[in-house]
Every structure is written in structure tokens, then in C-alpha cells.
Amino acid sequence: MSPSIQRTAFLLLATSAALSARAQDEDAPEPLGIRFRLAGRVQFNLKASFTDTQVPLSGAAGQFADGYVLLGSSTSTSTNAGAVSANPGSATWNWGYQRADQVAGNELTLTRFDQVPRVGTLDGSGGSTAYGGELWAMYELYSFRSFKKRTGHWGVEAGYGFTTFDASASGSVSGTATRRQSVYSLGGIVPPSAGYQGGYFGPVPGGPVAPVVDFDPVRSSAVQAGGINSLNAAVSTDLHTAKFGPWVELPVTDRLTVGLGAGFCTIYAQADLRFSESTTFTGNPAEFGVVTQNLSVNASRADWRPGFYARALVDFAITPSWSVFAGGDIQSNSDLNFSSQGRGTSIQLGSVFGAMAGVQFKF
């Protein structure tokens, strides 16, 4: 959050204390009490970015995108006949796979893709300007004599604002990917249903049988092909803002006043993230074995983001109770970051500028 906003808030508090002391020493007017303000609001400099943060698959042997064949514990092993004995390392129960089409006859095929092109980070567009509204309640603590003996006021204020913020991004990048594929012998077993995941320690004597496969693949291959990665991302956000702090009002003429305020600001952000990504391999699709990979991601997050605000308004009185005003402010709050399946967004809420106009009623 911006140090300049914090300094403004502290300066305003000090000014308010000085005015309070002066008001107690002088014959100050009676306070007016409570005011309400209703305003339309435009915010600028809201930003969002989107990132493919997927962690690459481990390069360890036996790790694949659709399964694994890894060493199990060396203390015992389970043969497919159900006996438990010392593990010679030629077979393992620590294996798994995802889809039924990976099994053909007595063989299990596992596949991984390396160096797949990724779009990476994209800056969102379309959301820098956002529209909403605010409602303020202001309590006057003291009145004081100001310029040309006109009456100034200071007190505390609390406000609620609502703004919607939408941003989107799209992009594509080309590169070369490598498909690595290994085929393992099932040793004549009927494999468990797709989605099976064996464990490292295997069975215990007298427990359920854990099927094993050969640890070393029957054959392996690596094929390269050109690919294009395309990404479309969007985020929709509702921003509920609460503010609390001191304010001071300084008269310029009998009808025109300048108001300043600063204090604590917190935003409750409710965000919905949508990713649509596809990778099309164009170099040698028949041998590569995959034409297109598609991924859709939807994620949501709601959280509070603390910060500070500072504002300045010009108010013109129409009647003793009603007036119109216009002005601007700056907010600085911490960013909202979240991700799912390696795809994420950062909603940047620091140094957001606002312009507002509305009406005030006081009694």
C-alpha cells in the first residue's frame, strides 16, 4: 500500500486534533450532526494479469502425464500369485494409469509431453475503467472559525462502495514439443480399472494382493513435433469497498467548501476466473499420436484486501440541507492472487484512482 496515503492520513489526523483544540478555545458554532452522501463513481488503473504457472512434470524416469511406474519398498513385494517375498527390483506394485485405452493386450502404454510451448503471462485488457457507486455516513465532531470567520467542520466518516471489474486476455505461441512414450509388460495380469494407483509400500502379509508390473519398459520412444499453444482467459470481479477515517471541511465562500478525508480502506473481492487453453501439434501429428490437447479451468476466490485511501471534494450548497459535490480519490490495497491447475490470475488493486459526483444531505 502507498506510503503517501498513510502520510496523508496521519497529517489529516494531526490537523483535526489542532482544529479541535482551537474549537475548544474559541466560541465555535454548534456541530451540524450527521450527513449522508450518495455518489456515482468511476475507477481507473484497475489491472489484471493471467499466468500459466503449471509446474513441469518431473524428469525422473517412470513419471508420465497419464501414470507412473516407480520403485516400491525394498522390504517386501507381492507377486501376482499373492505371495509376499523380498523385492528383487525387477517388478513393482508402485504403478498406476488413468485411461482404459492405455491397456492393449498384455501391455501398458504411458506417455508424457516435454517442452510443450506455453503462452506464459498475459496482461488483461478491458477493465482499466470500472463503474459503481458509494454511500457515505459522516458524523461531525466539531465546528471552527476558518477563513474570513466562515465556519469549518471536521469529524469521522464511514462509506460503502460497489464496483464491478472485468478483464480478459488471449494469445498464442509456437514451439517444439517432445512426446516420450514407454510400454510396460503386465506379466499376464488383468489390470485394475482405469484410475488405479498403487502405493510405495505395497501389501502386508495376509492383506489384499497388489498386482505388479515389470519395472523396466519393454520399449521406449521419443518423437518431436511442432505445436501451437493458444490461450483465452477472463476474470470477473465484484469489489465491495468499506472505508473509515477522519474528514475536514474548509469553507471557500458561503456556499462553496473543500473537503479532505483519509483513512483505512478494505476491499472484499469476489473473483471468477475462466481459462480455455488448447495445444495443437502440427509438425508430424500421425506419428506424434496427439493432434490437439484441450484444457478448461474455472476457479473462484473471495477475500478481504486491506489498504488506505485519501480523497478531496468540492461541495456546493443549494439549500442549508442539500448540496452537490464532485471530487477524486486514491486507494491502495494488496493484490488478489489465486490459481487452479497451474493457471492463475493477479488482480492488482494498488494505486487505483477514482472520480465521483453526487448529492449530500445534512441535518
Question: What layout of secondary structure does this protein have?
Answer:
Layout (H helix, E strand, L loop, with lengths): L2 H23 L8 E11 L2 E6 L10 E2 L2 E3 L7 E2 L5 E2 L5 E2 L2 E3 L5 E2 L2 E8 L6 E3 L5 E17 L5 E35 L27 E2 L4 E33 L4 E26 L3 H4 L3 E26 L4 E12 L2 E5 L2 E6 L3 E11 L1
Antiparallel strand pairs: 1-12, 1-21, 2-11, 2-20, 3-4, 4-8, 5-6, 7-14, 9-10, 10-13, 12-13, 13-15, 15-16, 16-17, 17-18, 18-21, 19-20
Which structural traits does this protein have?
Porin; eight-stranded antiparallel beta barrel; four-stranded antiparallel β-sheet; 21 strands; elongated
> How many DSSP-defined strands?
21
- The helical percent reads under 10%
Query: What is the number of helical segments per DSSP (H or I, 4+ residues)?
Result: 2
Neighbour order of strands in the largest sheet? 1-12-13-15-16-17-18-21
CATH fold assignment of the domain at 3-58 and 118-180 and 228-362:
Porin
Structural class: mainly beta
**Model regions low in confidence, pLDDT < 50 over at least 5 residues:** 19-28, 75-79, 81-87
Radius of gyration: 33 Å
Distance between the termini: 35 Å
